[in-house]
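Hey,
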Amino acid sequence: MAAVIAVYALVGWLLGVVANLLADSLPVSRRPHVPRCPSCTAPRKLTAWSALASRVTGTDRCLYCGTPRGSRPVIVELVGTFGAILLVQRDSGPSALLAGTAVGFVFLLITVIDIEHRLIPHVVIVPAALVFGLMQAVDPSRGPAKTVLGGLAGAISFYVLYLLGEAFARALARARGRSLDEVAFGFGDVTLAGLIGLIVGWPAVVLALLVGILAAGLFSLAFVLVMLARRRYTAFTPIPYGPFLILGASLVYYGGRGLFESILLR
């Protein structure tokens, strides 16, 4: 078992490297490209593609402009490594491990991009929806009906919230005499909710989204209180919503779909 954990830790680390590469390139060009320095755009040497490896070898600064790598790439690779270890300890069955790894990779990638860019790119959501929708539809414990219904429930419910947010923003803009730069929900949140529905299915999608909304609300309240205490509060400060939806989805997906479905169906 120790050898399996070591191998899968290596797999998780490599997926963290890939997640960093995609998080740097997809928001800019919508396609992957080799790792580059964010300051001077010079390509990194192959030995510096990994943030952890470059920290160990002392090559974490750009060779051309000296800009340091930053902490995000290191955190992502560590999350990938330890997440893979937790997955293989949870269920080492090939099908469950493959599905859990793929879901975790996509969730990690979306989280990083949304935190840094306030963006949930369709180039990630669409392929993921097709792959996970098919995977879950052919799963004997789920089937196509619960998979499709989960996706529709997630997308439609958040599309309604998106329309309500747009209406509120327009009304507030008229009252203030100027437009709002940010709204509570972007259309990327709608597509993410649909993806989550495909992944966790019906009726677990209801709990996944509710947990995500609750987590976002608690974080927003804490954020407002901290900013007020520091006298730096600004109304309508935007926060990325995707990571909270992914938190709710992760708790449901990795915590046991059967448990949450039994709670909802009581």
